[in-house]
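Let us work through a complete example step by step.
Step 1: write down the sequence.
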Amino acid sequence: MQIDPAQLAALSAVLRCGAFDLAAAELNVTPSAISQRIKALEDHIGTALVHRGSPCTGTQAGQRLAKHAGDLGLLEAQLIRDLSLTGVKSGARLRLAVNADSLATWFIPALAAVPDVLFDLVIDDQDHSTDWLARGEVSAAIAATDKAARGCDSFALGALRYVATASPAFMERWFVAGVNADTLNRAPCLVFNPKDKLQARWMADVTGARPTPPAHMLPSTHAFIDAAKAGIGWGMNPEVLVRDSLVNGSLVALVPGQPLDVPLFWHVSRALSGAIAPLTRAVRQAAGEGLLR
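Step 2: predict the structure and record it as tokens.
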């Protein structure tokens, strides 16, 4: 089945911009033309591709087709590089699954090293990011497992070190009797989202038990640190981000000398490995500078 490139570009633009008129402005055509192309593509494929709303979102089939368009752009960019075609603009767009803490600490320099690609980042827990690859919704991912999804390769990057931290006042309120299974079971902790198991893993490592403390959900790396400083709860924070706070005393480690090191791996679709090779090199270099070996 052949797909009209103009129709595919219209679908990608609608899902990226969230509206038909914005997609039309991006592609320099009329909203009517965008609507006609989407309808023609849906008729050709035989299923709905766009949930019409504010914003417009893709159906499962629509999202897969939009990713296909991005993959074609990456392959085109590789061809332009291989043939040294200067002055030719590629349509490279790459969708990645990345955990928030990597994005906040070491990953941005890798993106900056590949200026000819437009990135679409999906933020998800490092224990679940390969699910996006398995569903074919991203082309590469940062994950905490070395087990590659089918059709993908994985590369070890190093480990991101976390420290369980809280404010001095929080420690005085909740841990006067020490940090143990009983006190951890009562003291409020911080959790990024329901998938976040870092706090649970650290408590199991330290106590040999599985405390179930009350938890605040804060889906932001930097809000995690601010909340810990404010005494809202304790949480696992990347050491690189709290190093100064530990030195100046605004944060303290719950148990000094008990970090949690989370190994990270770069997973990439084998079919696109050549097209993504520049980013893979940049990711491995950035990881070498920002992660523990």
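Step 3: interpret the result. The chain has a mean pLDDT of 90.
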